[in-house]
Amino acid sequence: MYYLFYGLIWLITWLPLPILYILSDFIFLFVYYVVGYRKNVVRNNLKNSFPTKSAKELKKIERKFYRYFCDVFIESLYEMHISKKEMMKRMNFSQLELVLEQYEKGKSCMLMTAHYGNWEWASGLSLFLPSDKPLYGVYKRLTSKHFDDLMCELRMKSTGLNVEKNDLLRKLFQLRKDKQLAMFGMISDQRPPRNSLHYWTTFLNQDTPIITGTEVLSRKFDYPVFYSEITRIKRGYYNCEFIPISLEPSKTSEFEISEKYIRLLEKTIETKPEFWLWTHRRWKFKREDAI
Prior knowledge:
This protein is an alpha/beta fold and 291 residues long. Helix content is 44%, strand content 18%.
Protein backbone atom coordinates (compact mmCIF):
# COMPACT_ATOMS: atom_id res chain seq x y z
CA MET A 1 0.00 0.00 0.00
CA TYR A 2 2.81 2.41 0.90
CA TYR A 3 4.64 1.89 -2.40
CA LEU A 4 1.40 2.47 -4.30
CA PHE A 5 0.91 5.70 -2.35
CA TYR A 6 4.52 6.74 -2.99
CA GLY A 7 4.24 6.03 -6.71
CA LEU A 8 1.00 8.00 -6.95
CA ILE A 9 2.57 10.98 -5.21
CA TRP A 10 5.67 10.75 -7.38
CA LEU A 11 3.53 10.97 -10.51
CA ILE A 12 1.03 13.61 -9.36
CA THR A 13 3.62 16.02 -7.99
CA TRP A 14 5.16 16.47 -11.44
CA LEU A 15 2.15 18.69 -12.12
CA PRO A 16 2.65 22.47 -11.70
CA LEU A 17 1.65 23.76 -8.29
CA PRO A 18 -1.25 25.93 -9.62
CA ILE A 19 -2.86 22.75 -10.99
CA LEU A 20 -2.21 20.89 -7.74
CA TYR A 21 -4.07 23.65 -5.92
CA ILE A 22 -7.18 22.62 -7.85
CA LEU A 23 -6.70 19.15 -6.34
CA SER A 24 -6.32 20.81 -2.95
CA ASP A 25 -9.70 22.49 -3.40
CA PHE A 26 -11.34 19.11 -4.02
CA ILE A 27 -9.52 17.55 -1.05
CA PHE A 28 -10.86 20.37 1.12
CA LEU A 29 -14.45 19.55 0.15
CA PHE A 30 -13.88 15.88 1.02
CA VAL A 31 -11.97 16.46 4.25
CA TYR A 32 -14.25 19.19 5.57
CA TYR A 33 -17.72 18.19 4.41
CA VAL A 34 -17.48 14.40 4.07
CA VAL A 35 -14.85 13.14 6.51
CA GLY A 36 -14.96 16.02 8.97
CA TYR A 37 -11.37 15.30 9.99
CA ARG A 38 -10.96 16.19 13.69
CA LYS A 39 -13.67 18.83 13.48
CA ASN A 40 -14.53 18.50 17.16
CA VAL A 41 -10.89 19.05 18.13
CA VAL A 42 -10.60 22.10 15.87
CA ARG A 43 -13.86 23.64 17.07
CA ASN A 44 -13.03 23.10 20.72
CA ASN A 45 -9.53 24.56 20.28
CA LEU A 46 -10.84 27.63 18.48
CA LYS A 47 -13.65 28.23 20.95
CA ASN A 48 -11.32 28.07 23.95
CA SER A 49 -8.58 30.12 22.27
CA PHE A 50 -10.88 32.95 21.18
CA PRO A 51 -13.66 33.15 23.79
CA THR A 52 -14.73 36.65 22.71
CA LYS A 53 -15.30 35.73 19.05
CA SER A 54 -18.78 34.97 17.81
CA ALA A 55 -19.86 31.59 16.44
CA LYS A 56 -19.88 33.13 12.96
CA GLU A 57 -16.29 34.38 13.33
CA LEU A 58 -15.10 31.01 14.62
CA LYS A 59 -16.81 29.21 11.75
CA LYS A 60 -15.05 31.47 9.26
CA ILE A 61 -11.65 30.74 10.82
CA GLU A 62 -12.46 27.03 10.83
CA ARG A 63 -13.24 26.93 7.12
CA LYS A 64 -10.16 29.00 6.26
CA PHE A 65 -8.03 26.66 8.34
CA TYR A 66 -9.24 23.53 6.57
CA ARG A 67 -8.65 25.12 3.17
CA TYR A 68 -5.14 26.03 4.16
CA PHE A 69 -4.56 22.65 5.83
CA CYS A 70 -5.15 20.99 2.44
CA ASP A 71 -2.82 23.48 0.74
CA VAL A 72 -0.02 22.62 3.16
CA PHE A 73 -0.56 18.91 2.51
CA ILE A 74 -0.21 19.47 -1.25
CA GLU A 75 2.72 21.86 -0.87
CA SER A 76 4.58 19.40 1.35
CA LEU A 77 4.21 16.61 -1.22
CA TYR A 78 5.23 19.03 -3.98
CA GLU A 79 8.67 19.13 -2.37
CA MET A 80 9.31 15.79 -4.04
CA HIS A 81 10.03 17.50 -7.38
CA ILE A 82 10.41 21.18 -6.57
CA SER A 83 13.60 22.70 -7.96
CA LYS A 84 15.99 24.67 -5.80
CA LYS A 85 15.33 27.73 -7.96
CA GLU A 86 11.58 27.50 -7.42
CA MET A 87 11.97 26.92 -3.68
CA MET A 88 14.13 30.03 -3.39
CA LYS A 89 11.48 31.97 -5.28
CA ARG A 90 8.59 30.76 -3.15
CA MET A 91 10.28 30.90 0.28
CA ASN A 92 11.87 34.20 1.27
CA PHE A 93 13.94 34.71 4.43
CA SER A 94 14.19 38.19 5.90
CA GLN A 95 16.65 39.41 8.52
CA LEU A 96 18.78 36.36 7.75
CA GLU A 97 21.85 38.55 8.18
CA LEU A 98 21.11 38.71 11.91
CA VAL A 99 21.44 34.95 12.11
CA LEU A 100 24.50 34.73 9.85
CA GLU A 101 26.25 37.27 12.07
CA GLN A 102 26.33 34.60 14.76
CA TYR A 103 28.40 32.36 12.47
CA GLU A 104 30.96 35.16 12.26
CA LYS A 105 31.10 35.11 16.05
CA GLY A 106 31.74 31.37 16.02
CA LYS A 107 28.30 30.39 17.31
CA SER A 108 25.68 27.95 16.09
CA CYS A 109 22.01 29.01 16.32
CA MET A 110 18.68 27.65 17.49
CA LEU A 111 15.70 28.58 15.32
CA MET A 112 12.35 28.17 17.07
CA THR A 113 9.33 27.87 14.82
CA ALA A 114 5.88 26.28 14.99
CA HIS A 115 3.24 24.37 13.05
CA TYR A 116 2.28 27.64 11.44
CA GLY A 117 2.34 28.55 7.76
CA ASN A 118 4.30 26.05 5.71
CA TRP A 119 6.79 24.86 8.31
CA GLU A 120 7.94 22.09 5.96
CA TRP A 121 9.19 24.59 3.37
CA ALA A 122 11.28 26.27 6.06
CA SER A 123 13.94 23.69 5.19
CA GLY A 124 14.52 25.86 2.12
CA LEU A 125 16.69 27.98 4.40
CA SER A 126 19.49 25.52 3.60
CA LEU A 127 19.72 27.00 0.10
CA PHE A 128 20.76 30.35 1.58
CA LEU A 129 23.40 28.99 3.97
CA PRO A 130 27.10 28.16 3.54
CA SER A 131 27.44 24.49 2.59
CA ASP A 132 29.81 23.84 5.50
CA LYS A 133 27.37 25.33 8.02
CA PRO A 134 24.13 23.43 7.37
CA LEU A 135 20.61 23.49 8.74
CA TYR A 136 19.49 20.52 10.82
CA GLY A 137 15.75 20.01 11.11
CA VAL A 138 15.00 18.46 14.50
CA TYR A 139 12.10 16.03 14.29
CA LYS A 140 10.31 13.28 16.16
CA ARG A 141 10.46 9.90 14.44
CA LEU A 142 7.10 8.71 13.10
CA THR A 143 5.68 5.34 14.11
CA SER A 144 5.61 4.15 10.49
CA LYS A 145 9.15 3.71 9.16
CA HIS A 146 7.94 4.11 5.57
CA PHE A 147 6.29 7.47 6.20
CA ASP A 148 9.14 8.56 8.43
CA ASP A 149 11.55 7.89 5.56
CA LEU A 150 9.24 9.74 3.15
CA MET A 151 9.08 12.88 5.31
CA CYS A 152 12.86 12.84 5.82
CA GLU A 153 13.34 12.51 2.07
CA LEU A 154 11.06 15.47 1.36
CA ARG A 155 12.76 17.63 3.98
CA MET A 156 16.18 16.93 2.49
CA LYS A 157 15.18 17.99 -1.04
CA SER A 158 16.56 21.47 -0.35
CA THR A 159 19.80 19.94 1.00
CA GLY A 160 18.66 20.33 4.60
CA LEU A 161 19.70 17.67 7.10
CA ASN A 162 17.60 15.86 9.69
CA VAL A 163 18.37 14.89 13.26
CA GLU A 164 15.97 12.90 15.42
CA LYS A 165 15.28 14.69 18.71
CA ASN A 166 16.71 11.85 20.79
CA ASP A 167 19.99 12.17 18.87
CA LEU A 168 20.18 15.96 19.10
CA LEU A 169 22.32 16.27 22.23
CA ARG A 170 24.86 13.82 20.83
CA LYS A 171 24.94 15.80 17.56
CA LEU A 172 25.49 19.09 19.39
CA PHE A 173 28.42 17.70 21.34
CA GLN A 174 29.91 16.15 18.21
CA LEU A 175 29.71 19.37 16.19
CA ARG A 176 31.21 21.38 19.01
CA LYS A 177 34.05 18.86 19.33
CA ASP A 178 34.67 19.08 15.57
CA LYS A 179 34.42 22.90 15.72
CA GLN A 180 31.63 22.91 13.17
CA LEU A 181 28.81 25.45 13.12
CA ALA A 182 25.20 24.77 12.18
CA MET A 183 21.63 25.93 12.61
CA PHE A 184 18.98 23.84 14.29
CA GLY A 185 15.32 24.24 13.35
CA MET A 186 13.07 23.39 16.28
CA ILE A 187 9.28 23.12 16.02
CA SER A 188 8.51 24.17 19.57
CA ASP A 189 4.74 24.39 19.86
CA GLN A 190 4.09 20.70 20.52
CA ARG A 191 2.45 19.35 23.63
CA PRO A 192 5.15 18.12 26.05
CA PRO A 193 5.04 14.46 27.12
CA ARG A 194 3.37 13.77 30.46
CA ASN A 195 6.72 13.39 32.25
CA SER A 196 7.94 16.80 31.02
CA LEU A 197 5.20 19.14 32.23
CA HIS A 198 7.72 21.48 33.87
CA TYR A 199 6.58 24.90 32.75
CA TRP A 200 3.07 26.27 32.45
CA THR A 201 1.86 29.61 31.16
CA THR A 202 -1.24 31.21 29.66
CA PHE A 203 -1.28 30.69 25.90
CA LEU A 204 -4.29 31.61 23.74
CA ASN A 205 -6.38 32.16 26.87
CA GLN A 206 -5.64 28.69 28.22
CA ASP A 207 -3.43 27.18 30.91
CA THR A 208 -0.75 25.54 28.76
CA PRO A 209 2.34 23.37 29.35
CA ILE A 210 5.31 24.50 27.26
CA ILE A 211 8.05 22.33 25.83
CA THR A 212 11.39 23.69 27.08
CA GLY A 213 13.98 21.53 25.31
CA THR A 214 15.24 24.31 23.05
CA GLU A 215 15.74 26.63 25.99
CA VAL A 216 17.63 24.03 28.00
CA LEU A 217 20.02 23.30 25.13
CA SER A 218 20.53 26.92 24.11
CA ARG A 219 21.42 27.87 27.70
CA LYS A 220 23.73 24.88 28.02
CA PHE A 221 25.66 25.61 24.80
CA ASP A 222 25.04 29.39 24.83
CA TYR A 223 23.70 29.26 21.27
CA PRO A 224 21.66 32.33 20.20
CA VAL A 225 17.94 31.73 19.76
CA PHE A 226 15.70 33.21 17.08
CA TYR A 227 11.97 32.98 16.45
CA SER A 228 11.31 32.01 12.83
CA GLU A 229 8.00 33.68 12.02
CA ILE A 230 6.50 32.25 8.85
CA THR A 231 3.84 34.33 7.11
CA ARG A 232 1.91 33.55 3.96
CA ILE A 233 2.28 36.27 1.33
CA LYS A 234 -0.13 34.62 -1.08
CA ARG A 235 -0.95 31.08 -2.16
CA GLY A 236 2.35 29.25 -2.59
CA TYR A 237 4.57 32.11 -1.41
CA TYR A 238 5.95 32.70 2.08
CA ASN A 239 8.26 34.87 4.11
CA CYS A 240 10.20 33.73 7.14
CA GLU A 241 11.46 36.51 9.39
CA PHE A 242 14.10 35.84 12.03
CA ILE A 243 13.34 37.63 15.29
CA PRO A 244 15.96 37.50 18.07
CA ILE A 245 14.76 35.89 21.29
CA SER A 246 18.12 35.79 23.06
CA LEU A 247 21.65 36.36 21.75
CA GLU A 248 23.17 35.35 25.09
CA PRO A 249 21.06 32.47 26.39
CA SER A 250 23.45 31.57 29.21
CA LYS A 251 22.58 34.90 30.84
CA THR A 252 18.82 34.37 30.77
CA SER A 253 16.69 33.21 33.68
CA GLU A 254 14.91 29.86 33.68
CA PHE A 255 11.95 29.73 31.28
CA GLU A 256 12.66 33.26 29.97
CA ILE A 257 13.38 32.02 26.45
CA SER A 258 10.34 29.74 26.39
CA GLU A 259 8.11 32.58 27.58
CA LYS A 260 9.41 35.01 24.96
CA TYR A 261 8.89 32.42 22.24
CA ILE A 262 5.33 31.61 23.25
CA ARG A 263 4.38 35.30 23.39
CA LEU A 264 5.74 35.85 19.87
CA LEU A 265 3.92 32.78 18.58
CA GLU A 266 0.70 33.85 20.26
CA LYS A 267 0.86 37.22 18.50
CA THR A 268 1.46 35.50 15.16
CA ILE A 269 -1.53 33.17 15.63
CA GLU A 270 -3.86 35.94 16.78
CA THR A 271 -3.04 37.95 13.65
CA LYS A 272 -3.90 35.13 11.21
CA PRO A 273 -5.29 32.15 13.17
CA GLU A 274 -6.21 30.08 10.11
CA PHE A 275 -2.56 29.25 9.43
CA TRP A 276 -1.89 27.36 12.70
CA LEU A 277 -2.38 23.60 13.07
CA TRP A 278 -5.66 23.48 15.01
CA THR A 279 -6.11 19.71 14.59
CA HIS A 280 -3.44 19.11 17.24
CA ARG A 281 -4.71 18.12 20.72
CA ARG A 282 -2.53 20.82 22.25
CA TRP A 283 -4.40 21.12 25.54
CA LYS A 284 -4.82 17.46 26.41
CA PHE A 285 -3.01 17.77 29.76
CA LYS A 286 -4.04 19.73 32.84
CA ARG A 287 -1.82 20.89 35.70
CA GLU A 288 -2.97 17.98 37.85
CA ASP A 289 -1.53 15.61 35.22
CA ALA A 290 2.01 16.77 36.01
CA ILE A 291 4.11 14.00 37.57
